[in-house]
Write a structure and sequence with these properties.
about 200 residues; alpha/beta; Rossmann fold; five-stranded mixed β-sheet; two-stranded antiparallel sheet; globular
């Protein structure tokens, strides 16, 4: 859960605005329903209760390594983290001089979600797909591409350009996509977490 951080140099890097709020509400709901869970946590703006087993990470690679180690023993994996799509080809071990122009080379990060089913084919895999200012049909198409690429069993898709649905908001409006599409109107992330788990249980 949360957003990963990819360093440029010893003090700077790139990240995103993911708060971890949705991930935390999902964790709370899983706990209430009696699940034994582990949270893999990157950069978040929420306080995580001490009752949870937490593994802290920073970069996408660190998250990838931890998750691949956990996956063989899991029945359900919910990929709610906002993992950076890019990392720097060459990180500087020193602070880069800010008085000079800077050009940086990026390379794609490993897509964690595409590895899950290869390691544990029987796991129930829930993916998230955050898009920006696209139509409902386009969002469904993006979600189903993830299903095709990663073998996701259920995708939670949302448009973060909508009012009250941005990163860090307390509410969201989502589509739950598999062979069918369930529209979940604007609601608190706590309520959305309940709906997601209701749908997961129907499919297990």
């Amino acid at each position: 859960m949360g957003g990963t951080y990819e360093p440029i140099d010893s003090v700077r890097g790139i990240t995103n605005k993911s708060s971890g709020k949705m991930g935390l509400e999902l964790a709370k709901e899983a706990y209430i329903r009696g699940s034994n869970l582990t949270l893999v946590v990157a950069n978040v703006s929420v306080d995580i209760p001490s009752v949870f087993n937490v593994i802290n990470v920073e970069t996408g690679k660190e998250m990838n390594d931890v998750i691949l180690d956990l996956i063989p023993e899991c029945d359900i994996f919910i990929s709610a983290a906002a993992v950076s799509d890019f990392q720097f080809k060459k990180e500087s071990s020193k602070k880069i001089d800010s008085s000079k122009s800077l050009s940086i080379d990026l390379k794609p990060t490993t897509k964690i979600i595409r590895q899950i089913k290869k390691i544990n084919p029987d796991i129930f895999l829930v993916g998230f797909k955050a898009e920006f200012n696209i139509s409902r049909d386009e969002m469904i198409k993006c979600a189903r591409k993830q299903i095709s690429d990663a073998g996701t069993d259920l995708v939670v898709a949302n448009d973060i350009s909508k009012v009250e649905c941005q990163f860090g908001s307390d509410s969201n409006e989502v589509l739950l996509v598999d062979d069918d599409v369930l529209s979940v109107p604007l609601a608190s992330k706590k309520q959305i977490a309940k709906t997601i788990f209701d749908e997961i249980l129907k499919r297990l």
